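Q: Here's a chain of 213 amino acids. Please give me its 3D structure as tokens.
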Amino acid sequence: MHSTSPTQPRSLLTRATLLFRLRDWQDSASWEEFYRLYNKLIYGLARRSGLAHGEAEEVTQDVFKRVAETITGFESSPNRGSFRGWLMNLTRWRIADKFRSRPVEGQQPDKKFQDNTTDLIDAMERLPDPRTAYDTVWETEWRSNLLAAALARIARHVPAKHFQAFDLYARQQWPVLRVARELGVNPASVYLISHRLTKRLKAEVARLEAQLG
């Protein structure tokens, strides 16, 4: 029976979990989770690149379709690089594709490029500062999405009042006495809840980052 080597990085095993489940197209729960995690990230990058709302939605759908078509061939290993990096490049290509398909000076739209080197460079040159802007925006959007996903998960698994106390005190920076008065709890409880959920949030972010990085 195959066993995991004790020297194998645990993060590699964890991060591959969702990707492995996506290989089963019938696993709707995993695909819904994947969509929740990456939808805003891909759409946000497309919009920041200068695409209109409708164009950005089309890019997002194109990227998810491409992931579905190729996920079974993706190996989450150091040699292939991170899934996040692969997804970023896939998104960049689809954004460049969308820019190329726009009519220019009354002409008919260019044919859809086929991801070869010449077409890719030509298309990417249409975008603002692609070499630096994409990495920066992608990282910013990624971190924001990761935090939102972690918060949403915590909110589903703790009492509503606990999450509200944590949100008001730790995230919105309300004074502890105001939070206690608003929620009808004592200040010590606010401190304790905030401490526990802050630790839980950090752990959840780390878990997601390891699983999806």
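Q: Can you summarize the key feature?
A: Residues 1-16, 107-131 have pLDDT under 50 and may be disordered.
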